[in-house]
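Worked example (supplementary).
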Amino acid sequence: MIKITDLEKFYRTEEVETIALNKLTMEVRKGEFVAIMGPSGCGKSTLLNILGMLDDPDAGSYVFNDIEVAHFNERKRADLRKHNIGFVFQSFNLIDELTVFENVELPLIYTGVAAADRVKRVEPVLDKMQIMHRRNHYPQQLSGGQQQRVAIARAVVNNPKLILADEPTGNLDSSNGNDVMELLTDLNEQGTTIIMVTHSEHDARYSHRIIRLLDGHTVMENIMI
Amino acid sequence: MMFKNYIKTAWRSLKKNKAFTAINVLGLALGLTACLLIVLYVVDELSFDRYNTKADRIYRVNEDLKLGNNTVNYAVAMPPLAQTLKTDFPDVEDAVRLKRTASHVKKGTENILEYNIAFADPSVFNVFTLPMINGNPATALAEPNSVVITETTAKKYFNSINVVGKTLLMDQANCKVTGVIRDMPKTSHFNFDFLISMSSWPDSKSDKWLRSDYNTYILFRKGADPKKLEARFPQFLRKYSGSEMQTDLNLSVDEFEKGGSYFRMNLTPLTDIHLHANRTGELGSNSTMEYIYIFSAIALFILFIACVNFMNLSTARSSNRAREVGVRKVLGSSRGSLIVQFLTESMLVTLGATLIALAAATLLLPAFNQLAGKEILINSHTYVWLLPVSLIIVLVIGFLAGSYPAFFLSAFQPVDVLKGKLAGGFKGGWLRSFLVVFQFAISIFLIIGTLVIYNQLNYIQNKNLGYDRKQVLIVKKAFELGKSAAAFKQQVKQLPGVADATLSGFLPTEQARSTSIFNKDAGMLDQKNAIFPQTWAVDPDYIKTLGMKMTAGRNFSAQMSTDSSAVVINETAAKFLGFDNPVDKLLYQALDGKHTKVKVYHIIGVVKDFHFNSLRENISPVILRLGEDTGDLSIRVSTSNLPALIAQIKQKWSGLSTSHFEYSFMDQDFDATYRSEQRIGKIFIVFTTLAILIACLGLFGLAAYAAEQRTKEIGIRKVLGANVTVIVSLLSKDFIKLILIAIAISSPLAWYLMHKWLQDFAYRVNIHWYTVAVAGMAAMLIAFITISFQSIKAALANPVKSLKSE
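After joint prediction of all chains, the assembly is encoded as:
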């Protein structure tokens, strides 16, 4: 599903050039659950942003579903992204002015789903995440665990082929964290590919495979199963 | 669909940030209200006389006269002019003369002194659009002693509007009511309650061509070119006034003109009269275009300040919105739809503000009318232009105010935002700094303008006018007493509490004026040495009663019979005549053109110059002579119990006349002369205050955000030992710097423009450096208070809290 080859990304300030990704090569197959680990500054967030098409690489190739996207412009990337990729963030990133239902509905609006269909698609997802009773609440009225469930609901509502999770349990206590990991595991079992960045060895154990990064390239791959 | 989502988000975002929304909406609403009121005012001023359906074809004929050193620009013309123009020029479809008068009108047993009366030719209803409710406009003013009255007047005198055929007793003459017209619109440069047939006024048949008495209007045929007519005026005047000039002045037109004098005619379009004409003999007090420009500028300034607030607060708040932008972009929103979203939000705010402003303007209109001396109404006609204008305002202001935040916010890179790379929207806001400078530059400009106008008005109020207008009671129309006027004066003088009294209608604060030509030698009219002064008939008590000062010679004396040919001249007349020592010099006044009969006057004294025109004009020559003018009785009072004294004077009046007793106070009459200036001054102050208020509202919001943005910094500084003073000065410093720049920009500009405004006054104040300093200090102080409210709050906050929340 994802194949990146010799991927490079630099950050330049006036005097210093920092290499974030250094000729990184990796592959993720359809239906995999991959965890990316590594110390701060090893390039894992950069990698996730490129995989999520929020950022573009400086060199190398990125093939997503047999399409080379490394050279795509922002509009094309946005178009591919909104149909194929769901995001889950450490800090949830819900829109405070929208209710639970409206937050989850948002990706459907951007992909042009009709209003009646949107209700039909949002409600089962809310049900599945066990936040249906909170559908008309605003994010600030929810606990952290509930907020992250809303964020996951929003990530999956469009039935993406890939979910990118950036430390999804980083702002949660262990019990809520476990719930979130269970949800992601369920989604994966139903066929969604998941790539997750994490600092937590505990969370990483939920994945099939751990890719460890250091200074912008793979240092080790652990197969969990 | 997406649109609904924008409105929803926008609405909730506004609701969530109540303080921000309140500042934004209220600031904008306040600005728009002020703007709307000014627009109503300006539209009203520009609409003067346009109620006339033939307005574009109506012109007033003016006269310009220069004789010797005197120039007079008249709004009035010669008695036979109207008819002659109509006969001689086929382009002139019709012509009408108006002559203002005042009269006692009897209502029951009461005699009411009415001022809004004019003699009018029958053609008045053909030229002007004065709809007649009852009566036949074609014949209404044909017969002598016919009068057409307005609806209100009809109700006042008869309690009915079906009054055609009834009679009104006006100054002892029976006038037949031949028509009732609708009240004249307030947007008319003249406003009469009574129109009396011109034929009732014998002088109207005069064929004199060297006089100026009648406001004369002509109606051009469709397609006629007024310029062509104007070009023929010199020849026309030569033809008709030439012979009269020869007989009356013993001069041919050529000789007259060779002497540097002139006698000319020109045209003023009807719709230009209210804002562009300020001549001797205007029928009402006109305004000037200058004020229209000033007010329009103020309206734009206020609107601009309010918009800048909106832009600044929105961008300052951008960091709070950045995350939303990032999330929306991640979820697939394009930049375009984000721009649309922010513009929607901004238009929503503008729409809200506009609705509030419309309501507020409607509610405030009565108060504004009172302030501005207007009778503006918002009716269906107003909405015809007001609603589209409001819509345009919403779109344009919404776009302008929202565009910067829209384009600025939508350009955020989602990666940066979500990573928290975007520290905040506050720093790097050079545009915001520029806008704050601009806002305050405008505010300071307005403060300086207000101070200068206020000083000038104050100067007018307190200037030594050369006479003492305080404690002078004026009994109007003493000629009603006929021969008893002198007796009335004597009786009043005997009353305790009366210091002095004088009979004369020629008062510095009254309209009555009379001019005639005087010559320095007995021979031919010498244009170089002739003067054309105000010639006022007064009595020996005049100078004393009005508190004027003699600078040379003596006052008139009732004991000296020779004083019947004596004159007292003012300093300006002495200067014009070129006399170093004018006392005992002689002046000659020709009684016929051949100078065979000449009246000789003997100058007995010089009176210190006194002001009798607007302070916009220089003092002109005045010659006082003894006469029996009984226009008014001016009484200098020396009692604190005025009501009792007035009652006593009224009793004396009633003993001699059945006419209504009318009086006024000279200082009030004086104030009336400057009412329009004072009104302008007041309006100016009100709107300047508003402008400053709105600017401060914006500054308040900005300071709040600055403090919010720097909460962490403040927390760290406090932990490291900074005290409140240090923090307040830290937060205030940036703004104070901007305001200093604003002062530097606006002071010279304001000084220059206000200096130009003052040039219109012949007598004026100087702009002192401290006026500018006071304005700058005031702006600084107001700004500092506004900012410190926020800074002190931030400085006093517990650092533990602010650091934890990060």
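Two points are worth noting when inspecting this output. Residues 2-223 of chain A form a domain with the Rossmann fold fold (CATH 3.40.50.300). Chain A is about 35% helix and 30% strand.
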